[in-house]
Amino acid sequence: MINFINKKIIFYFLITLFIFTLDRISKIYVINIAETYGKVDIYLNQFINVILVWNTGIGFGLLSFEKQFAYNFITVIIALVNLVILYFGIKSNDFRGYLFFIILGGSLGNLFDRIYYSAVPDFIDLNYNDFHWFIFNVADIFITIGIICLIFVELLFNKKENLNEK
Amino acid sequence: MKNKLVYLTFILFFLNACQTLQDGLAGNKNRNSDEFLIEKKNPLEMPPEFGALPEPAKKVNIIDKTEKINENIENLIKKEGSTNKTQSSDKSAEDFVLKQIKKN
Questions:
Q1: Cβ distance A142 to A19 under 8 Å?
Q2: Is the complex ipTM higher than 0.85?
């Protein structure tokens, strides 16, 4: 039993590490281009561009303050949220644990940038007919996938539970 | 279940770090908004005691350095001319003496 738990935790840890590393490699690559050429504005195709922008706030450009205190306060909240996710990830016995650790991998990537660069680099620009979606990074992809999957799981489980109760 | 969905949405907002292209590109401009804090320069004015200031000096005959150099060169040429003359006179005197010796 203990072996199983250990294996599970090691696997969770590897998932988190893989996502964190993937995110770091992508960000370091883009930042190196920015340092070499002064800016990053790469046209990949008509739907995806690579443009480096720095986000000091949270998702969707919210809570982007100039003041250091507000920035540090938000960073502390994000760190606490990470701890809560870690707790729920370890606690969960089904595949939701994997989803929590996928979210944690991305979240740690962004938290690292908030502490190291004092801002999070975003560089993937999806657009269609001059309509630009929010610029995001690799960590955001995994966070969003994890949370959307969790929402679907909650909705499905809730339906099943309701049916069982009836 | 509603609570869980609210928590998940909260997590989605807090852990994501995406932002709009407009905000991202305008961010630098916002940070560099010091152009509105630059002090305006006062318009040009006459000095307060402009009348009391001394007038600029009138034309003074200043001999240029080039003129001086030219004069020096001319003097040197003149001197050289005079020395050449003396040399030629010296030569003629020598010739005269030599002729006299040969005659004797």
A1: yes
A2: no
